[in-house]
Amino acid sequence: MITISKAIEDAITATPYLEEAMSKGIINLSALARELKPRIKKQLYKKDVSDAALLMALKRYQPSLKKKANPSRLYSEIENITVRSSLIEVTLKNSAEVDQIRKDLMRVLASERGHFFNFIQGVKESTLIISKDLEQVVTKHLSGKAMSKITNLSSITISLPPENRTTPGIYYNLLKVLAWNNVNLVEIVSNYNEVSLIFDNSQIDKAFSLVKSLVSKN
User: Fold this and answer.
1) Confidence class of residue 1 from pLDDT cuts 50, 70 and 90?
2) Domain of life, per the record (predicted)?
3) Looking at the structure, do residues 92 and 48 belong to the same domain, yes or no?
């Protein structure tokens, strides 16, 4: 049978924002106990669960949150943030044409530096995020086969420290600050030590300001 302590842990871990607030000690545990009470009662199939029991379970659980990995410290080690504009995103069903497009683009990139190029191949479809001046290379193979095409995009590319690969939640603070400020993320592309965030041109200034402030305060 599930215990009050386990029910509390499940409720907190299911809400990352709440988990973070508790770890920083900035939430009123008595008020939280009252808020969680109906949910815990339902989960335990009990007619009543005392506020005192819930509060005690929260107090016992809180110290364990402070011991969790803190990914935000890695932001202080970020030195390279690059912004690019005039990008387009094209999504296609996987086919021989998609493979040919990739080969043609690689030939262009081999002789001309400075282009933005990301190729993401999924199970049934592939997405190209490229500089607009590469669009002609792509469109000559399309023949109406594009599933979607998004123009007027910009990107923020962040070079991450090597520890990002072994730090849980490395993207959490980054995506959270964008979500809280109502900035829509069109696409996210990650590599070994690099992540590129793709936005509509209309939101790139606000997005860059938020990312920069996140890095500066850590």
Assistant:
1) low
2) Bacteria
3) no
Q: Of 67, 97, 119, which closes a domain?
A: 67
pLDDT tens by residue, 120-179: 888 999 898 999 988 887 777 666 667 888 999 999 999 887 877 777 777 887 888 899
Number of domains in the chain: 2
Residues 116 and 54 occupy one common structural domain: no
State pTM to two decimals. 0.72
Instruction: Provide the residue range defining the domain that includes 63.
Output: 4-67
Go through the chain and tell me how many residues it has.
218
